[in-house]
Amino acid sequence: MRVVVAKHAGVCYGVERALKLAGQAAEGGGTVRTLGPLIHNPQAVAALEDAGVRVASSLDDVAEGTLVIRSHGVDPAVITAAEERGLDVVDATCPFVRAAHRCAGELRDAGYAVVIVGEADHPEVEGILAHAGGEAHIVQRAADLPARIKRRVGVVVQTTQPPAVLAEVVAALLPRVNELRVCNTICSATEQRQASAAELADEVDVIIVVGGHNSGNTTRLAEICAARNPRTHHVETAEELDERWFDGASVVGVTAGASTPDEQIRGVIETVESLTGDE
Ligand code: SF4
């Protein structure tokens, strides 16, 4: 039996960079806190805790030491407040999210009505909104656009949104405005992982999706795979694998969300191979 890993799987550039920066901060010693979990993966968060990097739910929980800002980014007021209370700030905001911040600020400064395509309660969107000066229309689909809107509109997008959603919103805005400026800040990592997972799900007998049960992007990968292959299983760790899932299978696919560290993927591959007698 063969195990095939999706072409694009596992941690994306931004998460890998955030993990590295947090690790470097821990090596420096002292108190290190991340503002919210650095990654939606319980095992990775536990490993960080073992290395001395704990999760703070708000700035009020951090009295001293180093504060790591995760890849989603934050309202710049949070960084200012942290620096004012004497904390060393390690800003692990993903450069692609930073680009969305820049666009939101430029659109606001140029007098456009800002439309953010994304999830209103997502921390990344909260950061983009803050960079737009706190005033923007947040929409998840064209139907969410307000009935009245300025004739000059600028659009910026949460990095993980599907391109089709951006296209739908832009198409709906175009006939309603005199000027439309679009910053396509979608990052390809999510789309690449979803396309590779779909392709692999079509080709294999069984597909294992590895990642936190609390990870939105991993759950979405599992949904995409399940829609194409009924023998799809979402596991967080190798311990959850069940030998019976592989009965009669000759090819097993493995994919993983953008918040799944390599060790976890390797652990699952090794266990699948041992369960099925492969070396
Ligand atoms: S999904 Fe893209 S934007 Fe988000 S952290 Fe990863 S690389 Fe950065």
What does this structure look like?
The protein is built from nine helices and twelve strands. With 279 residues, it is α/β, with parallel strands linked by helices. Strands 1-12-10-11 form a four-stranded parallel sheet, with helices on both faces. Strands 3-2-4-5 form a four-stranded parallel sheet, with helices on both faces. The mean pLDDT is 95. The site of iron/sulfur cluster has 14 residues, from helix 1, helix 4 and helix 7.
Element layout with pairings:
Blueprint lengths: L1 E4 L7 H15 L4 E4 L6 H9 L2 E4 L9 E4 L6 H9 L3 E4 L3 H15 L3 E5 L5 H9 L5 E3 L12 E6 L5 H11 L5 E5 L4 H16 L2 E5 L5 H13 L3 E4 L15 E6 L5 H14 L4
Parallel strand pairs: 1-12, 2-3, 2-4, 4-5, 6-7, 6-8, 8-9, 10-11, 10-12
Helix pairs in contact: 4-5, 7-8
Bound molecules: iron/sulfur cluster.
The site of iron/sulfur cluster (SF4) has 14 residues, from helix 1, helix 4 and helix 7.
Order of adjacent strands in the largest pleated sheet: 1-12-10-11
On the 0-100 scale, what is the average pLDDT? Answer: 95
The tally of beta strands, per DSSP, is 12
The number of helical elements comes to: 9
Q: Are there runs of 5+ residues with pLDDT below 50, and where?
A: none
Order of helices and strands: EHEHEEHEHEHEEHEHEHEEH
The gyration radius over C-alpha positions equals 21 Å
How would you sum up the global shape?
flat
Secondary structure: helix percent: 25-40%
CATH architecture identity of the largest domain: 3-Layer(aba) Sandwich
Bound molecules: iron/sulfur cluster
From the 3D structure, determine the CATH topology of the largest domain.
Answer: Cobalt-precorrin-4 Transmethylase, domain 1
CATH class categorisation of the largest domain: Alpha Beta
Q: Describe the sheet with the most strands.
A: 4 strands, parallel
Task: Determine the CATH superfamily of the largest domain.
Answer: 4-hydroxy-3-methylbut-2-enyl diphosphate reductase, catalytic domain
Please indicate the percent range of residues in DSSP E strands (runs of 2 or more).
15-25%
